[in-house]
Amino acid sequence: MADRYAVLQKLGDGQNALLGVAAGGIEAAATQPLTYAKNCFQQRTPLSLVPRVVYRGTPASMAADGTLIGTQFACCGFLQKRVWTSNLQPDFNVRVCGRFDASSLVVLRELDESHRFVQKSAESTSM
Q1: pLDDT at 97
Q2: What is the pLDDT of residue 1?
Q3: Contact by Cβ (8 Å): 123, 88
């Protein structure tokens, strides 16, 4: 099985950004009905099944989410290619962020341990 963390390293910066824009746009379009229903419940207005009403504002949401996630994908790909020498260094957060104070070090170590546990569980179930 290919390493899922290596995918962004194989793509160029522009490709990562384009992939993120597509992912953000698809996510915004797919979740628009749920967002519409949530807003209706919060505002206590009746639900409508008219697509013109349900999908109102979708292009703006797609543009906003696409821009945000595209930037995130581009930054992650950039950092993975230029900062990390391997696909994943589990103690990176602990070494960099752990210098702030003792409480953040404890929290970051716990997060790293749980991340490693989840990775090992995922690897053992995929075999």
Answers
A1: 47
A2: 45
A3: no
| Among 113, 118, 107, CA closest to 4 | 118
pTM, two decimal places:
0.59
Instruction: Provide DSSP, 43-68.
Output: HT------HHHHTTTHHHHHHHHHHH
> What are the 10-residue block averages of pLDDT along the chain, 127 residues in total?
62 86 92 92 93 92 91 82 57 50 61 68 63
d(CA 38, CA 68): 22
Q: How far is CA 112 from CA 11, 103, 109, 121, 124, in A?
A: 26, 14, 5, 14, 18
Burial of 73 (0-12, 13-18, 19+ CB in 10 A): buried
How many other CB atoms are found less than 10 A from the CB of residue 35? 14
